[in-house]
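Hey there, shall we discuss this one?
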Amino acid sequence: MNIVDVWAQIPTVRFAQVRWLETLRRWTGDLEERLLGGVDLTLEAMNEAGVSIALLSGWHGPQGDLISNAEVANAIDQAPTRFRGLATVDLFDPMGAVRTIRELASDPRFVGVRVVPWLWDLPPNDRRYYPVYVACIEAGLPFCTQIGHTGPLCRSEPGRPIPYLDDVLLDFPELTVVGGHVGYPWIDEVLSLARKYPNFYVDTSAYAVSRLPAALLEFMRGQGRTRVLFGTNWPMLSPSRCLDGFAGLGLDVEAADLFLNQNARRVFKLSV
């Protein structure tokens, strides 16, 4: 299969040691081996599931870099046909964030920017994000974020789509936004935004496809077939686990290819 995974990361030791991973450890059981498995284990998991390209996220929060852009670039260089990067920025350094985006916009290894709201405890309509949005528009890069509740023991409110993401989409109609992790329990809000804004997309990372909400599946089968992207949140979930039950989703051939492959290639302008 020719699958694109739009949310993955190759963790550092710093990332693997953060306290908020404890809840995920309880859910996943075998997470420890994957957390520090590196490029080789990531490629093995991708090959097992037919994933051709994974987008690797940098992570930066108030405590500093957990996975730096340089570390993402280094991982990409080890398998340049299999990985692309989503840059991380420091919301507390707005001009530094703008410079980072402008610099990486000319680096073909990076195809977008990701900020995780719960990590900052700041919803996406906070003023600190707005220079980032302008820089993303200027650079032609999608802005990727997290929507819905949090698995880690952090506040979920910053991931609520309405009013926070609704404000952003109103203020920046030229900004391509990808909301990851489905958006549960606010799935009706997510779908209302997806129907309202042509520049808003949803990815299914952190969910096995067999657990996707029924309303989202109905959207994927019909008018939303061009608006939903496949993701895993590797190493928290493997591609194989995320794809388990895919045949039972009821997607036709076109909808399946759009979900697993073509939507991501179009949104992130992937040429490989």
Remarks:
- The mean pLDDT is 95.
- The chain is about 40% helix and 15% strand.
- The longest strand covers residues 51-57.
- The longest helix spans residues 253-267.
